[in-house]
């Protein structure tokens, strides 16, 4: 049976992650593994070890108090995770999805990479709880997951709904061509209108590349070729088509550069107010 790994935390993106996982699971005939990770903490770092500035006699009492606080915080994190998993699991079951919940301790990135081994798709929020209000930023943990993952990653926007269309960012790179093949063959996108969008001069070279890719997409509407920066061309098209999902190759070449190291993909993840699927 196919499996989707849905990673949640206490951020407001958790609902979108669960709902997109349910949408994908329904289309792929997959189960969902709902994952919450209680992060490991370095004991000294978490206490900031301010005790050295405290006078003799108070020092040991302070350390004992900090230990009690840390233990209480650990119990709270575990209970918070349990509540999140129960709520997410109930939301998935209401939609007829088979779900298994995993509540683990460890590093977030390492745990996700370990659990994704048998998954077809990883779903994660654009920002975690610690970056909740960092507008137009991609969370540091999310960035690291995307870089480390071997699977396609679906990044949820804050208010994600079932996509009504697919927009493929195309530059004729191997990664972009892989994204086109994925959209053409995966049941995830069956019946959805497809927009193929390319940034570049409207000349015969770019038009031939775009038309050749569009020919492999039966549901493709008129392909779009517009001169300008990739960020602007794709961003404008997404803004003009609310409810669409953006699909990009996880690795590309100029002008869609290597994920995270290159600015274009990072910019699209940060600024597009829609789910973004990065195809491996």
Automatic annotation (TrEMBL):
<protein>
    <submittedName>
        <fullName>Universal stress protein</fullName>
    </submittedName>
</protein>
<keyword id="KW-0614">Plasmid</keyword>
<dbReference type="Pfam" id="PF00582">
    <property type="entry name" value="Usp"/>
</dbReference>
<feature type="domain" description="UspA">
    <location>
        <begin position="208"/>
        <end position="280"/>
    </location>
</feature>
<comment type="similarity">
    <text>Belongs to the universal stress protein A family.</text>
</comment>
<dbReference type="InterPro" id="IPR006016">
    <property type="entry name" value="UspA"/>
</dbReference>
<feature type="domain" description="UspA">
    <location>
        <begin position="2"/>
        <end position="155"/>
    </location>
</feature>
<dbReference type="InterPro" id="IPR006015">
    <property type="entry name" value="Universal_stress_UspA"/>
</dbReference>
